[in-house]
């Protein structure tokens, strides 16, 4: 991939984060936060997007973001009180920005949003500068020099590039383009000024920064009033991947009209540059001087003209990367900051040029950025696979060593123990690298709810809980689709319209709770609404008419609810474009199950409905108990095991319809014989019972022959080369190289139930 | 011990005229064949882990260098009962569609080039209800039945399980 495309991709990735932050802050403000930092953060986010968009020529995005930013600025400056601000509009605008970003990302034509633009223009008393003037991207995206407070990244680089471009393209006209608040002085009257035209080429050695000198100091030693133009030549800057940020590759071409003599000029660089690092050319005489300098130090230059404002702005742009200078090695892609990085600390010049800078930089955000690393998922996957192989090899070794004579065994025992601990730690750490909070998915949901609420004419409050629950990256990716479907379903079928709700004695506004938590070694995500619940009569009637349920068949209310996951059932009276084509929940169920997860529904008529999605925390490894039954070995996830005991010590009773139960801690617990359920080969002599927990929190007893041991197993997909196996979620390879199935308690119970029931009522597992 | 059949051995030698290179193998006295391109490797019999309530010809799963794949007993698939697998039996590891699978056969016989024109459509066999046979090739000594591997494997997958669990 060429470097620019790579940068662009990084920019879009950052955009996603920025959009998330924007939405989150707006949401917080909408819900009554008056923290000025929230306003600032929202402003910075949109500002950074705009800056980056400008650098990559996304004109529509820049245009929209510009107006949006201007409106937010009214909040920041206090011209519009936070309490009065139209956050609903802002949130919709944030959605529009997200659309524009994705359009730009996919190279699709962007949708114009004149309605939103017009509404934004109305925010604040003073009329906004009309964006309709649509200046070309190179000159418009110039941002307030507040960039030194924006998250340093591609977006900031975009700002820098855009600014340098703007400055160099039109130095005289640049002062009034909005990115600094210096009074727009008249263009420097170069022609009438006395003195000679001098060309200055400043080409410092790459070790400039290591000499603790920066371009700002060098350029600042020239009398600002004499400077006609400054051009920064970045052509020497090497590709980002090979750039050492402590090298200076910047070259400057300065045009002066000055009365200073050549000696004076030399004198001004005397303390900062070696003679061969600059070149002075007089326009008329075209003579290159290289005399040793001897002049005295120059007085503090005056900063007053428009050109000087340019200078200070450029300097400000060069300044804002102290973080990068502190931690230049940590980011694997120093790309965003590289160009600006070498300059050390922002100085008063910055303050002058950046009067609109947000007051309090988000220190913690900076901290996070400085220590985080973007790594290609592929690399982590390779690492993960390798660790998986090591784990198998390690357990194989342990078995080998056990069969050795005692004295050899004893000598190696300690080493083997250490090895196994280290392997496990290694695995945990690699897993931790892949873990991510579910926030990444959750934060897409508010928008979905907002848009749906509008489409459906419903009033909905979305409550998110447990956003910081961490799961493996592989699971995160799989969450978005089912969650979207579940929320759609709740909004469309579950929640009533405001009028219906009032008639039913409920508050106008419906509530949807999206909750994530860890339970029994799984991540459990529930979507709860307080709507009307599942219309069982209608659902059942529909299922009957489709022949999914026999006409004379009696179903329990819970069984009827499960029909919602049957293929081709939709009970919505009006087929909407939101949901209602009947391709929703059955597809969700199938996808979830293929991941070794499960989805269930609990409904209470008139009170609401709760979808529960349970997924493994990772698709990669699990802690398992290896058991034997007949000739076959199985792995039970340790997370599901509550207790093991001898079957003889527990009285078994038989219920009238044949189900065996045992008393366990005073509760009647159903007992299943693994050999029967899984059809194990060989004779079984089940004398151990494992008490296990199901997803719904019920306990069951599972009778097995023997507990072989406990170990961490690498999860291997059965679906990849075969298909779903009832009763098992996946398989693993044991130390002897043979395959063992990883049991899935819930799926096993359904298998047991299906074996004892009539085929028709087997619908929910077979359909 | 396994015999690797890499493409490098054969694809470059592929004759220009329309011909198919077929790997033939035996189950009992019958000869079957599949395109050599589908064969990934051939290995000796190795114990498999049975799958609960799978179709009868699904022998179980095995570990092939960290990948888990299902082994299908061709003898069962063609209705001749289960193979009593011993060390002399052979698993032909094949790529079918996007999956890798093992085919348990008695022995691998040969690799032959067959002109496409020599492949005859399979007669409508009453017993071949699953359409396992794609075509027939007459060799000097044998009739080779070309297998439609997708059909062999499809019947062992999840769909068949539902069929069997429904019937149960």
From TrEMBL, chain A:
Reactions this protein catalyses: ATP + protein L-histidine = ADP + protein N-phospho-L-histidine
Query: SUPFAM superfamilies given for it?
Result: ATPase domain of HSP90 chaperone/DNA topoisomerase II/histidine kinase, CheW-like, Histidine-containing phosphotransfer domain, HPT domain, Homodimeric domain of signal transducing histidine kinase
Coiled-coil blocks: none
Q: Which SMART domains match?
A: CheW, H-kinase_dim, HATPase_c, HPT
Q: Which CDD domains match?
A: CheA_reg, HATPase_CheA-like, HPT
Q: E.C. number, please?
A: 2.7.13.3
Q: PROSITE patterns recorded for this chain? A: CHEW, HIS_KIN, HPT
Do you know which InterPro entries this protein is assigned to? Bact_Chemotaxis_CheA, CheA-like_dim, CheA-like_homodim_sf, CheW-like_dom_sf, CheW-lke_dom, HATPase_C_sf, HATPase_dom, His_kinase_dom
One of the entry's Gene Ontology molecular-function terms is: kinase activity
- Which residues does the record list as Phosphohistidine (modified residue)? 47
Q: Domain (Histidine kinase): give its ranges.
A: 416-619
Q: Which residues form the HPt domain?
A: 1-104
Q: Which UniProt keywords apply?
A: ATP-binding, Chemotaxis, Kinase, Nucleotide-binding, Phosphoprotein, Transferase, Two-component regulatory system
Judged by the first EC level, this protein's enzyme class is transferase
Q: Where is the CheW-like domain?
A: 621-754
Q: Pfam family of this protein, just one?
A: H-kinase_dim
Main function: Involved in the transmission of sensory signals from the chemoreceptors to the flagellar motors. CheA is autophosphorylated; it can transfer its phosphate group to either CheB or CheY.
Q: What is this protein called?
A: Chemotaxis protein CheA
From TrEMBL, chain B:
Q: Which Pfam families match?
A: CheW
Superkingdom of the source species: Bacteria
Domain CheW-like span(s) in chain numbering: 19-158
* InterPro entries per UniProt: CheW, CheW-like_dom_sf, CheW-lke_dom
Protein name listed in UniProt = Purine-binding chemotaxis protein CheW
Lineage of this protein's species? Bacteria, Pseudomonadati, Pseudomonadota, Alphaproteobacteria, Hyphomicrobiales
């Amino acid at each position: 991939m060429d470097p620019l495309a790579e940068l662009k991709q990084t920019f879009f990735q950052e955009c996603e984060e920025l959009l998330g932050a924007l939405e989150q802050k707006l949401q917080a403000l909408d819900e009554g936060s008056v923290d000025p930092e929230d306003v600032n953060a929202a402003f910075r986010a949109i500002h950074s997007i705009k800056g980056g968009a400008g650098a990559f020529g996304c004109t529509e995005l820049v245009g929209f973001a510009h107006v949006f930013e201007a409106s937010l600025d009214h909040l920041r400056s206090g011209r519009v009180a936070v309490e009065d601000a139209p956050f609903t509009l802002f949130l919709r605008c944030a959605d529009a920005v997200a659309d524009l970003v994705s359009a730009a990302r996919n190279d699709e034509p962007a949708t114009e949003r004149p309605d939103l633009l017009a509404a934004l223009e109305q925010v604040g008393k003073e009329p906004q500068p009309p964006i309709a003037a649509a200046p070309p991207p190179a000159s418009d995206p110039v941002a307030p020099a507040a960039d030194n407070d924006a998250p340093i990244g591609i977006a900031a680089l975009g700002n820098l590039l855009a600014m340098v471009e703007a400055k160099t393209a039109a130095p005289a006209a640049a002062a009034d383009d909005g990115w600094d608040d210096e009074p727009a002085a008249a263009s420097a009257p170069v022609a009438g000024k006395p003195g000679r035209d001098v060309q200055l080429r400043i080409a410092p050695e790459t070790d400039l920064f290591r000499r603790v000198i920066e371009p700002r100091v060098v350029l600042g030693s020239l009398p600002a009033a004499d400077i006609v133009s400054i051009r920064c030549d970045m052509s020497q800057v090497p590709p980002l991947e090979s750039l050492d940020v402590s090298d200076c590759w910047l070259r400057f071409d300065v045009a002066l009209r000055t009365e200073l003599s050549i000696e004076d000029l030399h004198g001004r660089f005397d303390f900062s540059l070696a003679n061969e690092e600059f070149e002075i050319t007089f326009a008329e005489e075209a003579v290159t001087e290289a005399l040793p300098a001897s002049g005295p130090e120059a007085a503090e230059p005056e900063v007053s003209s428009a050109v000087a404002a340019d200078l200070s702005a450029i300097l400000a742009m060069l300044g804002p990367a102290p973080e990068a200078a502190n931690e230049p090695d940590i980011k694997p892609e120093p790309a965003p900051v590289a160009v600006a990085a070498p300059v050390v600390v922002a100085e008063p010049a910055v303050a002058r040029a950046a009067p609109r800078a947000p007051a309090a930089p988000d220190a913690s955000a900076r901290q996070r950025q400085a220590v985080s690393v973007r790594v290609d998922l592929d690399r982590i996957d390779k690492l993960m696979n390798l660790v998986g192989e090591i784990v198998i090899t390690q357990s194989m070794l342990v078995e080998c060593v056990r069969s050795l004579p005692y004295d050899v065994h004893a000598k190696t025992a300690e080493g083997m123990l250490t090895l196994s601990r280290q392997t496990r730690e290694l695995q945990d750490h690699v897993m931790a690298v892949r873990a991510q909070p579910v926030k990444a998915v959750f934060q897409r949901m508010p928008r979905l709810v907002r848009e749906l609420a509008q489409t459906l004419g419903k009033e909905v409050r979305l409550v998110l809980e447990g956003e910081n629950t961490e799961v493996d990256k592989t699971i995160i990716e799989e969450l978005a689709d089912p969650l979207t479907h579940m929320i759609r379903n709740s909004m469309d079928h579950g929640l009533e319209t405001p009028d219906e709700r009032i008639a039913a004695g409920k508050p106008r506004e419906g509530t949807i709770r999206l909750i994530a938590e860890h339970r029994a070694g799984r991540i459990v995500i529930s979507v709860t609404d307080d709507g009307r619940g599942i219309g069982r009569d209608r659902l059942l009637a529909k299922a009957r008419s489709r022949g999914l349920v026999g006409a004379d068949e009696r179903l329990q209310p819970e069984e009827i609810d499960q029909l919602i996951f049957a293929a081709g059932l939709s009970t919505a009276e009006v087929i909407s474009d939101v949901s209602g084509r009947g391709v929703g929940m059955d597809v969700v169920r199938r996808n979830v199950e293929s991941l070794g997860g499960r989805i269930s529904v609990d409904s209470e008529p008139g009170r609401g409905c709760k979808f529960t999605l349970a997924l493994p925390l990772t698709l990669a490894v699990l802690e398992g108990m290896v058991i034997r039954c007949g000739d076959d070995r199985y792995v039970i996830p340790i997370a599901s095991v509550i207790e093991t005991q001898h079957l003889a010590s527990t009285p078994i009773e038989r219920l009238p319809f044949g189900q065996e139960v045992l008393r366990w801690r005073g509760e009647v617990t159903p007992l299943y014989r693994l050999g029967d359920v899984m059809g194990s080969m060989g004779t079984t002599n089940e004398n151990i019972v494992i008490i296990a927990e199901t997803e719904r929190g019920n306990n069951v007893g599972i009778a097995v022959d023997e507990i072989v041991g406990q170990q961490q197993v690498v999860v291997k997909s059965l679906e990849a080369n075969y298909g779903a196996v009832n009763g098992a979620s996946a398989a693993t390879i044991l130390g002897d190289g043979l395959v063992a199935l990883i049991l899935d308690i819930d799926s096993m119970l359904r298998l047991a139930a299906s074996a004892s029931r009539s085929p028709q009522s087997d619908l929910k597992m077979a359909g | 011990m396994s015999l690797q059949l890499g493409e490098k051995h054969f694809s470059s030698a592929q004759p220009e005229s329309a011909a198919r290179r077929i790997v033939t193998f035996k189950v009992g006295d019958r000869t079957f064949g599949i395109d050599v391109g589908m064969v990934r490797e051939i290995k000796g019999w190795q114990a498999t882990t049975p799958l609960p309530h799978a179709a009868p010809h699904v022998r179980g799963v095995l570990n092939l260098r960290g990948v888990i794949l299902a082994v299908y007993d061709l003898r069962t698939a063609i209705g001749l009962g289960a193979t009593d697998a011993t060390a002399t039996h052979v698993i032909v590891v094949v790529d079918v569609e996007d999956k890798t699978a093992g085919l348990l056969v008695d022995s691998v016989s040969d690799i032959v080039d067959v002109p496409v024109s020599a492949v005859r459509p399979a007669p409508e066999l009453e017993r071949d209800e699953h359409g396992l046979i794609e075509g027939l090739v007459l060799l000097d000594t044998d009739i080779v039945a070309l297998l439609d591997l997708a059909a062999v494997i499809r019947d062992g997958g999840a769909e068949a399980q539902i069929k069997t669990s429904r019937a149960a």
